[in-house]
Write a structure and sequence with these properties.
By secondary structure, this protein is α+β, with helices and mostly antiparallel strands. It has one domain (about 35-360): DD-peptidase/beta-lactamase superfamily (Beta-lactamase). The protein has helices at about 1-20, 20-35, 80-95, 105, 120-125, 145-150, 165-180, 185-195, 210, 230, 245-255, 270-275, 350-360, and strands spanning about 40-45, 50-55, 75, 205, 240-245, 260, 265, 290, 310-315, 320-325, 330-335. The two termini are about 35 Å apart.
């Protein structure tokens, strides 16, 4: 009898939870019907647990394509910057191996050419370095040539003069990290975060088994990074290239909300997390390696997330926002670029994040 009651209460709980997040479901399902993206996953949680997770739609617009599941893997695009590269930076700062206020050239002497000798590591992390926004590799351009070219570029504006979001900032940050650790950044990231956190579906360059679980970004790219610069760097880049799931990423979100601790193990100090997740630049919304919620009504996190909310967006249709006041996070992953990168997710994102808050607070 007790077993039957337990099962009944379990399904009642699931039913009530699903009903309370119906607004979230409706917005995402409408976006799929409107061909904004073929499928998506969402995970809403707090500092202790996952509250609501769901998968929607299919890998592609072909209804015979695989259905998206909660553990489906997405190309995170620029979410890599904040939740990949920046975690490595925070770890090295904690270990006193990296001082972000030192010039990049202190770690990468070759970077000092063409007026870049005074660019600091923190200037890279807040996108005020002076580097141009992007570099498009030519077909079959060697990885070493791409990196050498970025190191020797001229500045496109005076450092600190303005904010220009640049993928080259985080490729350069990766090179700084690798100059310190003397190994590829992806290995350092795995050893310090994804392996101990058992983030078993988070990786650069998914193998053939995991590629089948990846939502494609074009008809030709499944489990291969969408970003051309990261692809030119063989999928091992600081600006893009990380693949992951909502459940895996939730561990990083909980770690941040718990001031560096997850499952009773400390990964980062409270001090470094506080410093890196607070708005840093007076002329932009940028924190150190993260973005923060804009206050002009245009926030992709919608209108209800608290001041102090931080996170990042990804070009492929991915996003994470963490509210340290409410102590909640929302991870929303899509492959909106499929099949031809002609559709914008700009109007959908804030609706999803608004719906998440309204559902949590039963408004």
């Amino acid at each position: 009898m007790k077993t039957r009651l337990s099962i009944l209460f379990f399904f009642l709980f699931i039913s009530l939870t699903a009903q309370s997040f119906k607004l979230v479901d409706d917005i995402i399902n409408t976006a799929i019907q409107d061909s904004i993206f073929p499928g998506a996953t969402i995970l809403i949680g707090n500092e202790n647990s996952m509250i609501y997770g769901k998968a929607y739609g299919n890998f592609t617009y072909d209804k015979n394509s695989p259905k998206v599941e909660n553990n489906s893997i997405y190309d995170l695009a620029s979410v890599t910057k904040a939740f990949g590269t920046n975690f490595c930076v925070m770890k090295l700062v904690d270990e006193k191996k990296l001082d972000i206020n030192k010039p990049v050239a202190f770690y990468l002497p070759e970077f000092s050419t063409n007026g870049k000798e005074n660019v600091r590591v923190v200037d890279l992390l807040i996108h005020e370095s002076g580097l141009q926004a992007y570099y498009s590799p030519s077909l079959n351009e060697e990885k070493t040539h791409i990196l050498d070219t970025i190191k020797t570029l001229n500045l496109s504006y005076e450092t600190g003069e303005r904010t220009l979001y640049s993928c080259l900032n985080f490729v350069s940050t990766m090179m700084v990290v690798e100059s310190i650790i003397k190994e590829p950044m992806y290995k350092f990231y795995a050893d310090n975060f994804t392996i101990p956190l058992q983030m078993n579906r988070t990786m650069f360059n998914p193998n053939d088994e995991f590629k089948k679980c990846c939502a494609p970004t074009t008809p030709e790219l499944q489990g291969v990074v969408h970003d051309p610069l990261a692809r030119g760097l063989k999928g091992l880049s600081g600006n893009a290239g990380l693949f992951s799931t909502t459940e895996d990423l939730s561990k990083l979100c909980q770690l941040l909300l718990n001031k560096g601790v997850y499952d009773n193990k400390r990964y980062l100090s409270d001090e470094v997390i506080s410093n890196f997740t607070s708005r840093y630049s007076p002329q932009s919304t940028r924190a150190i390696g993260f973005d923060t919620r804009s206050e002009d009504g245009s926030a992709s996190s919608g209108q209800y997330f608290s001041d102090g909310t931080f996170g990042h967006l990804g070009y492929t249709g991915t996003s994470i926002w963490i509210d340290p006041v409410r102590k909640i996070y929302v991870i929303f992953l899509t492959n909106r670029v499929y099949p031809d990168d002609k559709v914008s997710i700009r109007n959908v994102r804030p609706k999803v994040y608004d719906a998440a808050i309204l559902s949590l607070e039963n408004k």
